[in-house]
Fold these 3 entries.
Entry 1:
Amino acid sequence: EVGFLGIAASLISFNNIYTQVIHNLLGRTIIVNTIDDAVNISKKVKGNYRIVKEVYDNGNKIELCAEFTIE
């Protein structure tokens, strides 16, 4: 899908002892490229996932934000 960067749990590194916790917290979180991508993907997944967009400041990732719910 255009703009889909991945499932958050698959995009991070962590110690294997935390696998279950990470998948419980981030396994239903989709990371997208743009707000338009978030809107389009949100319509397709119909609320089954949390969708967030990465935000950068001078090339440094500073936070994940913009949760989308389309009804």
Note: Residues 2 and 37 are 7 Å apart (CA to CA).
Entry 2:
Amino acid sequence: QGIKFNPLEEEAKAKLSLNIDSLHYNRYDYREINLDLKLSDGAYNGTIVSNSSDANLALTMNGVVTQQTDH
């Protein structure tokens, strides 16, 4: 769900919910990974949560979306 496509525009708004039932990586199977991310007014915040025994984690992220410039 979202409004506008370019995340660098201040008016851009988006909400993402992603549920991963199973993910195989580097010989491990990770299960029940949930990602929630919200973009509004150039800022984002979100969480990644997994209750899997192989990846028991809870991460919180936030920041501002900016265009990379060369120095």
Note: The CA atoms of residues 33 and 50 lie 4 Å apart.
Entry 3:
Amino acid sequence: KRIEALIAAAGLPTRLPESISTDEVLAKLKSDKKKDGGTVPFIVLRRIGVPLIDGNIGDAAVREAVEELRR
């Protein structure tokens, strides 16, 4: 909640618009220039200040995260 409030205070969106489909997001990720082979590197925060860089995030987890951004 704290991070979300900071993002909103900066005037940035905290939710994904309904006009952007989950499949569209997944398709864009697959064409990302940072893609290494078949994987896109993600930076996931374990907690504030502790990042994890991982290219082994499956489509199902990405789909779930994108759907969560609509709530």
Note: The chain has a mean pLDDT of 85.
